[in-house]
Amino acid sequence: SSVGEAMCELPKDKSDKVDWKAVRADICKLLEDDKYEKEPPGPVLVRLAWHASGTYDSATKTGGSNGATMRFTPESTDGANAGLHIARNMLAPIKDKYPNVSLADLWIFAGVTAIEEMGGPSIEFRPGRTDAPDASTVPPNGRLPDADKGQPNSTCQHIRDIFGRMGFNDQEMVALSGAHALGRCHTDRSGYWGPWTRAPTTFSNEYFRLLMEEKWSPKKTHEGKKWTGPLQYEDPTGELMMLPSDIALIQDKEFKRWVEVYAKDEDRFFKDFARAFKKLTELGVSFPEDDNILVKLKKLVLG
Ligand code: HIF
Q1: Contacts of residue 99, Cβ cutoff 8 Å, sequence gap at least 6
Q2: Which class for 60: exposed (0-12), middle (13-18), buried (19 or more C-beta within 10 A)?
Q3: Tens-digit pLDDT profile for residues 29-52
């Protein structure tokens, strides 16, 4: 019957044949590689997973992590993605070793693994993303957030516009923001400088505690000279930083309410973050296991 034929033609999900434990072990090896002692790869891998996902537009159902479209222009040249070729190149040998893993899955799996290995919550990972064969589904540039858009009065609006487009509410936006406990800004990538916390390879609620407890003022100098970069904030030691979009979270009553919650309750932060990050990285992805319900139903009916 035609139904029977359709069943035979169902695409075989290659990710079924992947030894994900082995892939994970190779990602862990990369995270600990002495070659990157000065700046461990964890944070930039998290940024890759987020930027691959953060192009999603719920109105047109375009963008998102499916497709691994950041391999193609114009997405690879979006200013917001500066420096992410470093993360993509780090993962290339792992892709070569496991040809059945899509790059789209690998970028997300690496980010999720990095969060867990840096002490964060475990985040449920589902494989099933496929790689777009060409640039025809690349989203337009400009969908990722700007750290200083709308200064000084409508930075919060910009954050709500961008993350609202993906389908997030205020609480989820603040929960996600805690990932800035990780990593740092690079003057040759974004123009900003410095880390948010003193433990940039430890996932914790430190970002929220620093936002609440430190006095943040506009950065004026850098290494004894006048700071000529974009507006950013620094703590009294000048060693830590916040972007205007980070400071916006304590300038808005609704956002600040959640900053306070997460500063006080790390378990709550971990729980909410894990859920929001999974949602972020699954935007626009349809998983074979969703289809499997139909396959099972058909089998049940047809025997
Ligand atoms: Fe980032 N983010 N982010 N970010 N981000 C940078 C670095 C990291 C924004 C701007 C920047 C999120 C939201 C926003 C990480 C993870 C997440 C940098 C510095 C900028 C400018 C890049 C560089 O110079 O290397 C803005 C405006 C955001 C919206 C408000 C997410 C929540 C916090 C979604 C998220 O998960 C990580 C990790 C890094 C560190 C990368 C590194 O190489 O160390």
Answers
A1: none
A2: exposed
A3: 999 999 999 999 999 999 999 999
CATH of the domain at 15: 1.10.520.10
Is residue 150 a part of any domain in this protein?
no
Please tell me the distance from the alpha carbon of residue 285 to that of residue 288, in angstroms, as a whole number. Answer: 10
Average pLDDT taken over every residue of the chain: 93
**Tens-place pLDDT, residues 2-34:** 444 444 444 455 666 899 999 999 999 999 999
Has residue 200 been placed in a domain? yes
Residue 51 domain flag? yes
- Give the residues surrounding ligand 1 with Cβ less than 6 Å away: 43-44, 46-47, 50, 83, 145, 147, 159, 176-177, 179-180, 182-186, 189-190, 192, 243, 245
Q: Is the ipTM of this complex over 0.95?
A: yes
Nearest to 179 by CA among 245, 227, 105: 245
Closest CA to 250 of 259, 241, 242: 259
Asked, for residue 301, whether it belongs to a domain, the answer is no
Strand partners, 194: 185
Please say if 51 is a catalytic residue. yes
177 lies in the same domain as 258: yes
Report which secondary-structure segment, H or E, holds 223. Answer: none
Helix (H, G, I), strand (E, B) or coil at 171: helix
9 alpha carbon to ligand 1 midpoint, in Å? 42
Q: What is the pTM of this model?
A: 0.93
Residue 221: φ, ψ to 5°? -130, 160
d(CA 27, CA 109): 9
Tokens of 300: 């049940």
